[in-house]
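Lab notebook page, bench 4
Experiment: in silico fold of construct C2
Operator: M.H.
Input chain length: 250 residues
Purpose: comparison with the prior construct
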Amino acid sequence: MFHIEKQKFGTFIAMLRKEKGMTQRELAERLFISDKAVSKWETGTSVLNIDLLMPLADILGVTVTELLMCQRMEQDNALSAAQVEQVVKTAISYSEEEQTRAYHNKGKWGLICIFSLVMACLEIWFSYRSGSITTGLIVSMSLSAVFGIYFCFFVKEKLPSCYDENHICVYTDGLFEMNLPGLSLNNSNWGKILKVGRIWSVALILVYPIISYIETLIFAGIWRDIVDLFLALFLILGGLFIPVYVVGKK
């Protein structure tokens, strides 16, 4: 299945719209959508719903096939049966490319994350007042907060179809990247991996300040810092990636 480049698709729509002498607002009005939606299409930051493919193609004076392939086709350039099948598959899966992110579902994890972040602020304040702030505490709380916010609010709930068709062990989403050598990511294990990431980040946010405080009662001076740093690294790396591999392999 060929893949549509959002930028190329948006550029093609913009070119066709300008050839018709239409503004983004005029095109949006004919499709009964907002002009902001058209702007996002043309800049490649968003994709249209599959239901709009046919009316958009009709308004712009091209076929749906030309729209999906992002190019005009000569009348005598007939597609083979295999090419037609690929276009149809792309049309069916195209609307899935705009992945639903976690915050769209308004599930319980968003509230849990917010609660844990509030509690973390209180715990850090207590640690500061009691003199138990350590490097391990700062590192672990910072990373778990970043991961927690991403996993609970911004992560894509479903992987693109190419993950199910190929062996891919790297997940990239903007600045966020997760490389898991030997583990094939797909939509069968992605939900479980997300659950592990959410539980790990929330648990670390809530529990680690308590662990760090106990360390200050047991150890002193440089030993406290060494134990705290090693424990933080173990909980950050092992606490996340070991369970991810376990559930991902099942």
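Observations: The chain has a mean pLDDT of 80. The CA atoms of residues 116 and 206 lie 6 Å apart.
Next step: discuss at group meeting.
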